Amino acid sequence: MNKYSLKRKSWSLIKVLMLVTTLILLMTGCMYPKPDSSSGVIVTKEAMRNTQGAIEQYLTTTGVLPIHNSDSSVPKYEKFRVNFGKLIDDKYIDYIPNSAFESGGNFYYLVLNEEEEPIVKAQSILLTQQVIDLQSKVTDYITANGDIPAGMEAYEGIFYIDFDKLNIKKPTIKSVYTGNLSELLVSNKGNVYIDYASDIMQLLQKDSSLVVSDQLDLRELLIANSDYVPVKSTNYKLVNGDPVAFE
What domain of life does the UniProt record list for this protein's source (predicted)? Predict the structure, then answer.
């Protein structure tokens, strides 16, 4: 056997060993995924559970919540964002969820009921930004025309938006609760909202055991039965069996 043949056999053996090593590494990666293997576009139950546990431990230890400061002008369901920096620095969590804004995800993690029983919920950044962008266009329209770009009246003093008046295509607003498309509203005051009436109605129809009082803001039902807040919304009450928005 000549030297050339030996070199060829040696090189073939090396390639086989490299291939085997690669396969082992790939298999190891599949068996031991990243702690939070979800994408940034969904919020997992695991991420919510871990964050909830971390803020409870932090509160028990320090007596305060790990949240960013916020002023009174911030809407109720956008107000107190989880401060993941504090949770990471003090070892209450090992990693920030992929779905969180701080990790490049599409959601802010919020703390609600901060003075009683703090609970973690998620706010869609995409929906928030869509409404902010639309609010800017509606405000410009009001400034130029002295009136709101109103279509049909949806509720007393609240209307569906006439997008032809704005000369723009109707934005696609996908509900975080049902996955269905949501309507957009504008009030007499010029405020833009997402309409959550259909989401609330589906929840009521799905669970007949839900107790609804005249004083209850129906958005609380959405929060209690999901991981998300009804971002950019107004108040809702039950009138003759139907969810009705009011400002």
Answer: Bacteria
Boundaries of every domain in the chain: 45-117, 126-246
Is pLDDT of 7 > 60? no
Q: What is the pLDDT of residues 200-229, one digit of tens each?
A: 999 999 988 887 888 899 999 999 999 999
DSSP symbol at 102: G
Q: What sections of the chain are H helices per DSSP?
A: 3-31, 45-62, 84-89, 125-145, 163-166, 197-206, 219-224
Distance, CA of 101 to CA of 124 (rounded, Å):
10
Q: How far apart are CA 199 and CA 166, in angstroms?
A: 27
Full-model pTM: 0.82
Residue 240 Ramachandran class (φ > 0 left, ψ -120 to 50 alpha, else beta): left
Structure tokens at 162: 């006439």
Contact (Cβ atoms closer than 8 angstroms) between residue 134 and residue 195: no
